[in-house]
Amino acid sequence: MSKRGGRRPTIIDVAARAGVSKSTAARALAGAPNINAETRERVLKAARLAGYERNHLAVGMRSGRSGLLGLVIPDIANPFWADVARGAQDRAAQNDVSLLVFSSDWDAAKEAAHLSALRRARVDGAIINPVSDSFDDLDRFGLPFVLIGSSAERFPDTSSVGSDIAQAVRLGLDHLAEKGHVAPNLILGPKSRLARARFLRSVHQHCVERDIDPAILVMEDGEYTVEGGRLAMQRLLKRPHVGHLAVFAANDMMAIGAMMAAREAGLSCPEDVSILGFDGIPAGAFTTPGLTTIAKPGREMGIRAVEGLFDEIEGRPEHGRIHLPCRLVERASLADLSVGTPQRKAGAGRI
């Protein structure tokens, strides 16, 4: 019953090959519980041999479900968000559900267009990272949804999944302090982003707990990109400083940009400059030196978001924020000043 003349195999072809009725074949492919294992396996094998694919549109019309979920993330080119998408896709596939992925490019208008497209596509629900902290269109979305990312903090009554930023920042600052960097310079994101405020709030709390005046911290803002980190680092290097320079960047792409700027200035990492990243993207393992970073659980975030969305779709909402812990990935971009290791004068070497 293979395809001939361009004709797609039908459920009738599968039933004939398996030696069962059309209704039995359909129930076996749908996973109905009242089909014995031997019959189900015979039907599945017949479907594979025939090259049969279920018509999800027709199934959706009967069940009221499309078998599609939407995912709107801010930047698919950022490996962290790609990891989130991969986790969501893998988890959705376990339930025979497909995922439509959209990248808003940090543009609120694009995000609105993507959400409209998802509604027209009749997806069963969506996972959204609002690019604007003033995102207020949730009530009008009209479909089950789960939020991810920092903006979700503004919606405490909505199911959401994100990294435990406070725990992550403490982890990074504690590790820097153990290495002798008690007051690192900070490269932060744009002032318009809630993620920046949450990061900075955790830094201030850590300083107060350690009896450090937060006002002494030197900060530069930039976009969450390699170029944004590079430009912010250039501005930091123009500021007056004495001795070794330590930098904690708000994401790994910015940290990699900071390493580039240090190299361009004739500085060596970690001899002259220590740099700590945030996200845990794979590229950090291939910089020279390898980037020490606080890794956020991107893939786990995608998995948990899909599981939460399934609950929303089934009317079993688990309202509240799920905070996933982060972990330290130690490589070679931080100098250890705690042991009194002599450091070269700034500008004496290259990365």
Automatic annotation (TrEMBL):
Q: Name one GO molecular function term.
A: DNA-binding transcription factor activity
Q: Which UniProt keywords apply?
A: DNA-binding, Transcription, Transcription regulation
Matches recorded under InterPro entries: HTH_LacI, LacI/GalR-like_sensor, Lambda_DNA-bd_dom_sf, Peripla_BP_I
The protein's matches in SUPFAM superfamilies, at most eight in alphabetical order, are given as: lambda repressor-like DNA-binding domains (SSF47413), Periplasmic binding protein-like I (SSF53822)
Q: Which residues form the HTH lacI-type domain?
A: 9-63
Name this polypeptide is given: Ribose operon repressor
Q: Please report the organism this UniProt entry assigns to the protein.
A: Devosia geojensis
Q: What is the lineage of its organism?
A: Bacteria, Pseudomonadati, Pseudomonadota, Alphaproteobacteria, Hyphomicrobiales
